[in-house]
Design brief:
Blueprint (H helix, E strand, L loop, with lengths): L9 H24 L10 H21 L10 H15 L2 H18 L9 H18 L8 H13 L7 H18 L5 H6 L4 H18 L35 E8 L2 H14 E9 L2 E8 L2 H11 L1 E9 H6 L6 E9 L2 H9 L3 E4 L8 H11 L1 E7 L6 H13 L3 E4 L5 H9 L7 H13 L2 E7 L4 E3 L2 E3 L4 E5 L2 E6 L2 H13 L5 E7 L4 H14 L4 E8 L5 E5 L1
Parallel strand pairs: 5-6, 5-7, 7-8, 14-15
Antiparallel strand pairs: 1-3, 1-4, 2-3, 9-12, 9-16, 10-11, 12-13, 14-16
Length: 548
């Protein structure tokens, strides 16, 4: 039983995220199954779940940062983390709109002009959420999640004056549930299918979690939707655009975008002319862009002209509609990489990659999605980060529940993943392949260089802010004044116990001259030790080192 808060403080925000994730996890398949609008891709429930998972992870990270102290995060910190996590992890129309709803709420609840966000601010937050979500959609249509959000805000506004947050949240939930039941009469495609709006049902689940978070009691009446009729496959049912005719836009394009407000307004106009189902959410320089188009390249080019797009995802609807999916491959490898350079390298080796941007580790849902995209009966998962062990284990367990045989090799660094991938042989038995890859990873010591942010004690002594730290197997072993000096010290430490191959992965801003210097250092000091160099692209560390 969650703690009764009757207010949306930081602890209640954390509880809300956790309960919403649980609720969407329980309803994910049911929501996917009633998805009949506007494109047959069957992933609204999954997209909502992945978005909520990213929001939850961001809030947990804020709380983890306070674990060493006695205080908890402020409400403002918690709701901002929730909104940012949802924004960067938003998937599909459903996730994009949910991210904007949470952002709208955060704009009110993070206002620190008062001591705590009381009940009346919760009313305002729900109203701001509904308004901002409509503003993010190019062509809103009734009978969608937008309708449900508006009804929730209006119902919250009608709650008695002086009511607590629990009463207001419950009023919003009941208003949303009533509006959801009416959606088949508002949108023809829903009426023909005999289902409610899928995104709206997801929002009802999220609001039910809010009720439980602030009052300690779950809503008595949880909505039960009818099963989807056989002629319809699940589609992203929350996209508020006109009914798509058969043979509508062929591609869904989604990306995060770093750009200013003016550039984004021009981007909206251009993308609106290219396709439909346009939703652009965000602000303060970071946006999540979603559109359905026939020319995916033009949609991405528009983003490049507006700013810096990344995490670009393109889904080909036409292939899903017209062509039967090919038989799955026997075996595949899914690997998490810290930079786009290594992503290209691993993709060339046949692996399915998941990019872990600095400060943005992938959630378990992203790993599950990558395992599905690999489309194989057997999958080897390489997380390449010790902090991802629980996330990767959860993803592997979910994939196994879907009938995929998954082996998780607990690689702790990208260079261990490279070593494992180098000995991957799909022609041998699964068990033999996993053993060989595990042995290769285990035989690879790993190191990285980092810049000290403050003065602190380390296993190698006291470091000052700005010092270059050489971490071997996760512990500080060398402290230096510059990258070349520290890198040589790290190599000497690692090669003192022997080695046959040194792998160097250079960060985006590291000059090639460093690789030349280190190769020469190895060649002159260690006979019969080879060196290979890769470009890692944009990654946290300026240099990654592996020794086999």
């Amino acid at each position: 039983m969650p703690q009764t808060a009757d207010d949306l403080d930081a602890v209640a925000v954390r509880t809300w995220c956790s309960l919403a994730l649980d609720a969407l996890g329980r309803e994910r398949e049911a929501i996917d199954a009633i998805n009949v609008y506007p494109v047959a891709d069957g992933d609204t429930g999954t997209n909502l779940y992945l978005t909520a998972e990213s929001a939850t992870a961001a809030v947990e990270a804020v709380f983890a940062a306070h674990e060493t102290g006695t205080s908890v995060p402020s409400t403002a910190d918690a709701v901002r983390a929730m909104a940012h996590g949802a924004l960067i992890g938003a998937r599909g129309n459903s996730g994009t709109i949910l991210a904007q709803l949470l952002r709208g709420m955060a704009g009110v609840l993070a206002d620190e002009s008062g001591e705590r966000p009381g009940p009346d601010r919760l009313r305002l937050a729900l109203t701001r959420a509904a308004v901002s979500a409509r503003e993010a959609v190019a062509h809103p249509v009734e009978g969608t999640v937008l309708t449900v959000a508006t009804a929730a805000a209006e119902a919250a506004g009608r709650a008695p004056g002086g009511a607590g947050a629990g009463v207001i949240a419950r009023a919003a939930y009941e208003g949303a549930r009533t509006a959801l039941e009416a959606t088949p009469g508002q949108l023809a495609v829903l009426g023909r299918a005999g289902v409610v709006d899928a995104g709206g049902r997801g929002l009802v689940a999220v609001l039910g979690a809010l009720v439980e978070a602030v009052s300690g009691r779950a809503p008595e009446r949880l909505y039960e939707a009818p099963a989807a009729p056989a002629p319809f496959t699940a589609v992203d049912g929350d996209c508020p655009a006109a009914d798509d005719p058969p043979g509508g836009p062929a591609f869904e394009v989604i990306y995060l975008l770093e750009a200013g407000d003016g550039a984004v307004e021009r981007l909206r106009t251009r993308l609106d002319a290219l396709g439909d189902s346009l939703v652009v959410v965000g602000g303060d320089g970071l946006w999540n862009v979603h559109v359905h188009v026939d020319d995916a390249g033009a949609a991405v080019e528009a983003g490049v002209e507006a700013g810096r797009p990344y995490r670009i995802r393109i889904t080909h609807f036409a292939a899903d509609r017209v062509h039967a999916r090919p038989e799955p491959a026997q075996r595949a490898v899914v690997v998490v990489v810290p930079g786009d350079g290594l992503g290209g390298l691993c993709a060339e080796a046949g692996a399915t990659t998941v990019l872990a941007r600095p400060g943005e580790p992938p959630a378990s849902g992203e790993l599950v999605d990558a395992i599905r995209r690999a489309h194989a009966r057997e999958v080897v998962l390489l997380p390449n980060d010790g902090d991802l062990r629980h996330t990767a284990a959860a993803a592997a367990e979910q994939a196994r529940a879907e009938g995929i045989r998954v082996a998780l090799i607990p690689t702790r660094a990208a260079v261990q993943g490279i070593a494992a991938l180098a000995v991957h042989e799909p022609g041998r038995s699964f068990d033999e392949d996993v053993v060989a890859m595990t042995a290769a990873a285990g035989a690879t010591r790993y190191a990285e260089l980092a810049v000290a942010e403050r003065q602190s004690w380390t296993m190698a002594g006291v470091c000052q802010a700005g010092d270059i730290l050489g971490l071997i197997d996760g512990d500080v072993a060398v402290i230096g004044e510059n990258v070349p000096e520290t890198a040589r010290g790290v190599l000497d430490r690692m090669l003192a116990s022997g080695g046959e191959l040194v792998t160097l992965v250079l960060g985006e801003d590291v000059p090639d001259a460093l690789a030349d210097t280190l190769e020469e250092h190895v060649r002159e000091g260690y006979l019969a030790v080879d060196t290979v160099v890769y470009r890692g692209g944009h990654q946290c560390a300026p240099l990654l080192i592996g020794v086999e």
